[in-house]
Amino acid sequence: MLTTKIPYYEPTGKEVEIFQMAAENSLPLLLKGPTGSGKSRFLEFMAHQMGRKLITILCNDETSAVDLVGRFIVKGVDTVWMDGPLTTGVKEGAIVYLDEIAEARPDTLVTIHSLTDHRRTLFIERKNEEIIAHPNFLLVASYNPGYQKGFKELKPSTKQRFLSMDFPYPKPSVEEKIIIGETGISDTIAKKLVQFANLVRKKPELGLAETVSTRLLVSCAKLIGKGLPSRLAGRTAIILPLTDDEDTVTALQDSFDLIF
């Protein structure tokens, strides 16, 4: 959806230019990176910059083609067709965002194939109807290559239908700017939060399913900015969301307390 407030985003490279080129050439785009690295925020920012409607579809293992395309529903004594979010985006020329595309069922992803090549069409089987995409329609998906590796992999046949952009966690100086820009927190606090994040990110032996994301750091900074003691904020916004293992919680809390 379009909003009057400009979403805060701090560019880390040439991602803005690449996105604009993809949109101008109607080329589908895959945003690759870990959880909380700024993929969704980047897309909100670009949609606002380009004045485009953004339709987000949260993918999971129950996401079906019907959920994307639409279905017949009973309305009073009539049976009427209701467009799904993908169909709406195709018709209106919106940016349609498939968040965590690898989570969707493989048979569901077949639905988008004709939208990701020269055809740019969507076939609605239940209506036996083919829709030609609006010139402004753009398909964007996000994907976390490191999540449940080997189980939630995206098929090469799907990946190769998209341009791809990497969204690793930002370098420290940029991540500090993001935290400050999002929360107004002091430079000192931002530096300490980034220091802790990079300490944890370099310790795979902790066995975390997901590491410290920029999103978690922003949440922590917001709590500190509202007056919560920094160590409690770290435990609440970063450490406990990362793990339920008591030993790991203790180890993370000790590291956080040393920095703060």
TrEMBL record:
UniProt similarity note: Belongs to the CbbQ/NirQ/NorQ/GpvN family.
Domain CbbQ/NirQ/NorQ C-terminal: 175-257
Xref: Pfam families: AAA_5 (PF07728), CbbQ_C (PF08406)
InterPro entries the UniProt entry points to: ATPase_dyneun-rel_AAA, CbbQ/NirQ/NorQ/GpvN, CbbQ_C, P-loop_NTPase
UniProt superkingdom: Bacteria
Gene3D superfamilies xrefs: P-loop containing nucleotide triphosphate hydrolases (3.40.50.300)
Name of this protein: CbbQ/NirQ/NorQ/GpvN family protein
Molecular-function GO terms, alphabetical: ATP binding; ATP hydrolysis activity
Entry keyword Signal: no
Keyword NAD: no
UniProt keyword annotations, A-Z: ATP-binding, Nucleotide-binding
Residues that span the membrane, as ranges: none
ATPase dynein-related AAA domain mapped to chain residues: 28-162
